[in-house]
Specification:
Low-confidence stretches of chain A: none
Largest sheet of chain A: 5 strands, parallel
Oligomer: heterodimer
CATH architecture of the largest domain in chain B: Alpha-Beta Barrel
Number of domains of chain A: 1
Strand content of chain A: 15-25%
Number of strands of chain A: 13
Low-confidence stretches of chain B: 1-5
Largest interface: A-B, 38 and 30 residues
Strand order of the largest sheet of chain B: 1-2-3-4-5-6-7-8
Structural class of chain A: alpha/beta
CATH topology of the largest domain in chain B: TIM Barrel
Order of helices and strands of chain A: EEEEHEEHEEEHEHEHEHEHH
CATH architecture of chain A: Alpha-Beta Barrel
Helix content of chain A: 25-40%
Shape of chain A: globular
Distance between the termini of chain A: 36 Å
Mean pLDDT of chain B: 92
CATH superfamily of the largest domain in chain B: Aldolase class I
Strand content of chain B: 15-25%
Shape of chain B: elongated
CATH class of the largest domain in chain B: Alpha Beta
Mean pLDDT of chain A: 91
Distance between the termini of chain B: 51 Å
CATH topology of chain A: TIM Barrel
């Protein structure tokens, strides 16, 4: 997956491990400057109806989309069918096979629907898409998504837009360590230190939107996130001293494994 | 259709369905004596008028209430819609199916508040801007005209069929072409859903026969197709391709995706695929997102 410090996802090779969201920015100009400051090579987008009359200006108008690896999302989908449809529309609009599967299962928190996420991922993989599913911090589900052919899995650190940071560090770390495909931590990363932490653990990348878009100075914050991501990548490569300590995150069953009436 | 046959009042939804299927709209003139109007309207409805508008500029509206009630009953018996011109008060007093307003009459919102949701509201438009602005109002149809100079409205400047087409291109509600029309096909082919006439029926030697002919001509004309475009009702001229539709909306082919009836249309097919009646068309593009 990684050669010369680069991250390979489908047909894309990324030097920057920071994926930049494009929602909620104060202006098209700030968005363009923020992406430039972050050094991001991959940006996320959403698919929506074109306004038929009146103002058609978009927050994306200052961007040359051809310069980036586009990662359209299926945000707004409430079922696997809706996610697949949005993926089809995104491919038709952008002529790229990359898709971030996002199926909301709980409106208030925007937490993903695990079953629909899995189904949409499987179907889109079968159709030849490079699928990056947004998932919860559920370890087994992340593994199943990898098994289903996801190019990377994207567990949320915290609910979308919450900027709460890594709510379940234990699970996120376990996903990073156990997943056979790159893990890109998505959603809820509010501060560069949050991104730094997951990168230190070995995340392949992070996706940040609100943490930059709603910062006091988004452009400077984009730079800060980029530096944190870079530091975390270096730190993981160097090997954290604490990781040498045995039993640091030990766990074991309370119920005996022996004597199970199978086999 | 039970209500139509028994001459009862159509419900809110039924009235709009009836409006959607309408082709011929007859407006009474100012020259015929008031007492001749019941027979005239009955003949027009028998000939196929879908809508009748009582339009009298000279009499005060209060003098028209009894006449309006009798025309309303006559229209209901014949399965036609009955509206009055200008006066919300008259529409209310006569329990008409709606009111037709001019640009200078009571504002549409005010009329809607007073009438409630059932009665139809129509609005005259004379420019593309007026037709576009009308889309934001709680109304049920717009009129576009005068297509030709007409003695009925000597002060108005004729705007031609271009105004009908311009209105059709932006309207989510039926478009009624009006002004000096004496034929049924031309306005429908320009994008109108209905042809409105005054003299062509009211001054005809045989109003019933005139209505019959106009209705038949309008029916036989190739009308524009109604489609659902991004969740809104819109009209598309016969034979229009998806690429032409995009161009009309001012949209470039790159950067958008087009879906028709749940099926993505490949970019290279946009120039050849023709928009069909009832098509559900979605045009999407990228916006900011996380």
């Amino acid at each position: 997956m990684e050669e010369d410090g680069r991250l390979r996802l489908g047909t894309a090779t990324l030097r920057s491990r920071l994926i930049h969201g494009t929602g909620k920015f104060p202006s098209a100009q700030v968005l363009a400057q923020s992406i430039a400051a972050s050094g991001a090579e991959m940006i996320t987008l959403a698919v929506r109806r074109l306004h038929l009359d009146g103002d058609r200006r978009s927050e994306l108008e200052g961007l040359d989309l051809a310069r980036y690896q586009l990662l359209p999302n299926t945000a707004g989908a409430r079922s696997a069918d809706e996610a697949v449809r949005l993926a089809h529309l995104a491919r038709a609009a952008g002529l790229s096979d990359f898709i971030k599967v996002e199926v909301v299962g709980h409106e208030a928190s925007l937490l993903p629907d695990p079953l629909a996420t899995f189904e949409a991922t499987s179907r889109l993989v079968a159709e030849g898409y490079t699928v990056l599913p947004y998932t919860s911090d559920d370890v087994a589900l992340a593994l199943r998504l990898a098994e289903a052919g996801a190019a990377a899995v994207m567990p949320g650190a915290a609910p979308i837009g919450s900027t709460l940071g890594v709510l379940n560090p234990h699970n996120i770390r376990l996903i990073i360590e156990e997943c056979p495909v790159p893990v890109i931590v998505d959603a809820g990363l509010g501060a560069p230190s949050d991104a730094l932490r997951v990168m230190e653990w070995g995340a392949a990348g992070v996706l940040v939107n609100t943490g930059i878009a709603r910062a006091g100075n988004p452009v400077e914050m984009a730079r800060a996130f980029a530096a944190a991501v870079e530091a975390g990548l270096l730190a993981h490569g160097a090997g954290l001293a604490g990781d040498a300590v045995e039993g640091r995150r030990g766990f074991g069953a309370s119920t005996p494994a022996a004597g199970l009436p199978v086999g | 259709m039970g209500d139509l046959e028994t001459g009862g009042q159509l419900g809110t939804e039924q009235l709009r369905i009836r409006l959607g299927a309408s082709r011929l709209y007859v407006v009474t003139d100012d020259l015929s004596p008031l007492e001749s109007l019941p027979a005239l309207v009955e003949a027009a409805v028998a000939g196929g008028a879908d809508l009748v508008q009582l339009r009298r500029k000279r009499e005060p509206w209060a003098d028209l209430v009894d006449l309006a009630r009798s025309l309303r009953d006559s229209c209901r018996r014949g399965g036609a819609i009955f509206v009055v011109n200008d006066h919300v008060d008259l529409a209310l007093a006569a329990d008409a199916d709606g009111v037709h307003l001019g640009q200078g009459d009571a504002p549409v919102r005010e009329a809607r508040e007073r009438l409630g949701e059932r009665p139809l509201i129509g609005l005259s438009t004379h420019t593309p801007e007026q037709a576009l602005r009308a889309q934001l109002l709680p109304l049920d149809y717009i009129a576009a005209g005068p297509v030709r100079a007409t003695p009925t409205k000597p002060e108005s400047v004729e705007v031609g069929f271009q105004q009908v087409t311009a209105a059709a291109q932006v309207s989510r509600v039926p478009v009624v072409a009006i002004g000096g029309l004496d034929e049924g096909a031309s306005a429908i082919e320009a994008g109108a859903d209905m042809v409105a006439v005054v003299r062509a029926v009211c001054a005809a030697p045989d109003p019933r026969q005139a209505a019959q002919r106009l209705r038949r001509e309008a029916e036989a004309a190739t009308s524009w197709r109604w489609i659902r475009l991004n969740g809104e009702s819109r009209k598309s001229p016969p034979g229009e391709t998806l690429l032409e539709l995009l161009a009309r909306l001012g949209v470039e082919r790159s950067g958008v995706a087009v879906e028709v009836d749940g099926r993505i249309v490949p970019r290279e097919h946009l120039a050849t695929e023709v928009v069909c009646e009832g098509a559900v068309v979605e045009v999407v593009h990228f916006v900011g997102g996380g």
